[in-house]
Amino acid sequence: MAESVRRVLGRPGSVDLRPYVKLLKPIEDREAELGGLSDTELTAKAAELGDAELPYERDDLVELCAVGREAARRALGERPFDVQLVGVMALLDGRIAQMATGEGKTLAGALAAAGFALRGRRVHVISVNDYLARRDAEWMRPLYDLLGVTVGWIGQEADAKERRAAYAAEVTYASVSELGFDVLRDRLATDPADLVVPDPGVALIDEADSVLVDEARVPLVLAGAAEAVESDVAMAELVRGLRPGRHYEVDDEGRNVHLTDTGIEAVEEALGGVDLYSADDTSILPRVNLALHAHALFQRDVHYVVRDGEVKLINESRGRIALLQRWPDGLQAAVEAKEGVAASDSGEVLDSITVQALLLRYPVRCGMTGTAMAVAEQLREFYELEVAVIEPNKPCVRVDEPDRLYATQEEKEDALVAEVAEVHATGRPILIGTQDVAESERIARRLAAEGLTCSVLNAKNDAEEAPVIAEAGAYGAITVSTQMAGRGTDIRLGGSDTSDRDRVVETGGLYVMGYGRYPSSRLDDQLRGRAGRQGDPGSSRFFVSVEDELVAANAPETRGYDVTAEGEITDPSWRDVVNHAQRVAEGRLMELHRNTWRYNKLIDLQRGVVLEHRSEVLHADQGDRQLAVDCPERHAELVEEVGAEEVARAARLITLYHLDQGWVDHLAFLADLREGIHLRFLGRRNPLDEFNAEAAPAFKGFLDDARARAAETFNEAPVVDGRIDVAQAGVKRPSITWTYMVQEHPFSTEFENAAGRIRSALGRG
Ligand SMILES: Nc1ncnc2c1ncn2[C@@H]1O[C@H](COP(=O)(O)OP(=O)(O)OP(=O)(O)O)[C@@H](O)[C@H]1O
């Protein structure tokens, strides 16, 4: 047995890979014969696989992998490695395949997608972003062509017609947000011909942990019916003059801020002697709090960037601009006022969906990622998915050096710069991972001051991504990057054409340096994973200080330590403190995820009831039939006047309108309920139970109410020029809709939020 095959056998906690490994030999045995076929004959072989149902029987699985391997060799010039085929088989079995960076997940995913498609399943390959959706679909297209499978992709710019065409393909590549928003928009369709997304078949998720865990922390929201918000420039100006420590205090974790007594006095005076806590005008205090939040807790170039006159959020786990993301509850407007940019529209939430609810619609789910084991528990709990750990094609020889620990940030930075200078002198390429944009710029300036030239990759210059990454493995290259470099980037040793590869290999390959550990070990691993791809030499090391936010916030009660003259902590057990801090941070993130899920469970169930009814109105004549029963005279009169078809059309529009409007109101009620529910923490009652206890009765009678309102509108709607004018009767749909992801709890965990709210309500620390 080849070494790579032996290693593939699996690790504890992983699903058993032996059944797949056993098939590798028979797959290889098919190679000679398939190699002799013409392209047309090979396509015909693939088509033959479509004669049976899923799952694949042993012989068919062998044939699929063998045909797929031959097709990839011809179409892409790449013969899939054994480990890639094991990945394909794990995916076809509905697993999360953990495969390291650069192992060729794109190809493994495409072969599995084709396998599902050949058996008549519609496959959605869920990519991390639009750029990768397009790149991967186009890259794999020749392979799909040869296998006789159609492929499409969806980008943000696509209109409804283009989307429909892309979804009509057997395999469609799209980001989770595009997919989610298409599903949400479809839920508001008033004509079956407007629907875009077909019934779900298979979800094959790339970078599965990122989508299933990180993205799943916030629901996708569809908003519409805009009402411009006033930009509170005056309040932004006022808080700009306040001083930290004197007028306001920020808690240790930077998650909550409150005015001090001096601050309260200063604000009251600046506003002309108002009483912030007066019961007469309760609108001022929330405005002050919002402006203060925006001022004190949100930093430009850390939490957001200002580009093209707009405030753009930075996605925490990826370091990229989160295109459609906004902050909730007026915070967006407060940050816009702070930055002096025009206030963007706010709107009414029309509907929302969690990533879980979106993906659990698919009868078959599977995915791939380099870092799944760390979240295996969550994948099982939330998605019923098991992880298959597939070892690399060539053993990973990257050396992950232990962290270097420093007392202060300054000493850490000095040490990092000194190390860069020393290693750079040998010609070895270096990649430095930072936590945010501001940090990446500061490090770059510092290096420049030392005469070390570097390229910078962050959310501000993401257009440069491809060329910067292409050269990051070149001899003598220094690249500073935020988490952007963490996913889907292939750093080749010796530069883009790998011409200098041997010289770079001699220096030791890529050296990855982390400027502080990330809030999750998966992010650390992704950064490390940029080095050592496909058996390349390389190493990684993180530089950490006690002052790092992760450590300060999550391991506050620290023991003493001895330091060297350079400020390096000598006690190795201090690394445990750092690891512990990271685990605490991970626990918090998991709690956020769990909360989003818990609070949305009941909402999803209720939404299901509405959708089922809605579908009968949309596709059948349920609305018309109901109105004929509820308003028999008016119905008969209208049929007489304008004809049955026109009455049915109006009945559909009116009934759908009231269902949708009822849902918007219900969602708004639930959002308010959830806001207030945190305060019940103090009453020692379980807020989730309280929420469910009130959300359930509030939904009772939902369908009856919508039906009664529809009858009212139906009775009132006038006939104009032979048509029932539903608009005059108040049936108006938002002319524009837009989409975003809200950050449900941008700053804190549930408990801290409750405490924070109470503190701000009392105005005291
Ligand atoms: N069987 C193969 N033979 C040769 N090259 C391959 C093979 N499979 C993939 N590659 C190459 O390996 C590189 C990495 O592939 P890919 O981007 O799919 O990796 P990945 O696993 O998605 O990595 P990442 O975690 O960085 O996203 C690509 O340049 C691809 O062309």
UniProtKB/TrEMBL annotation:
Residues 2-571 form the SecA family profile domain. SUPFAM superfamilies: Helical scaffold and wing domains of SecA, P-loop containing nucleoside triphosphate hydrolases, Pre-protein crosslinking domain of SecA. Its EC number is 7.4.2.8. It is an enzyme of class 7 (translocase). SMART domains: SecA_DEAD, SecA_PP_bind. It catalyses: ATP + H2O + cellular proteinSide 1 = ADP + phosphate + cellular proteinSide 2. It is found in: Cell membrane; Cytoplasm; Membrane. ATP binds at Q84, G102, E103, G104, K105, T106, D490. It is a peripheral membrane protein. Its main location: membrane. Pfam families: P-loop_SecA, SecA_DEAD, SecA_PP_bind, SecA_SW. The keyword Transport applies. GO terms for biological process: intracellular protein transmembrane transport; protein import; protein targeting; protein transport by the Sec complex. One of its GO terms (cellular component) is cytosol. GO terms for molecular function: ATP binding; protein-exporting ATPase activity. Residues 86-245 form the Helicase ATP-binding domain. Keywords: ATP-binding, Cell membrane, Cytoplasm, Membrane, Nucleotide-binding, Protein transport, Translocase, Translocation, Transport. Residues 400-585 form the Helicase C-terminal domain. Part of the Sec protein translocase complex. Interacts with the SecYEG preprotein conducting channel. Has a central role in coupling the hydrolysis of ATP to the transfer of proteins into and across the cell membrane, serving as an ATP-driven molecular motor driving the stepwise translocation of polypeptide chains across the membrane. Belongs to the SecA family. Monomer and homodimer. Part of the essential Sec protein translocation apparatus which comprises SecA, SecYEG and auxiliary proteins SecDF. Other proteins may also be involved. PANTHER family: CHLOROPLAST PROTEIN-TRANSPORTING ATPASE, SECA INNER MEMBRANE COMPONENT OF SEC PROTEIN SECRETION SYSTEM. This is Protein translocase subunit SecA. It comes from Marinactinospora thermotolerans DSM 45154. The gene is secA.
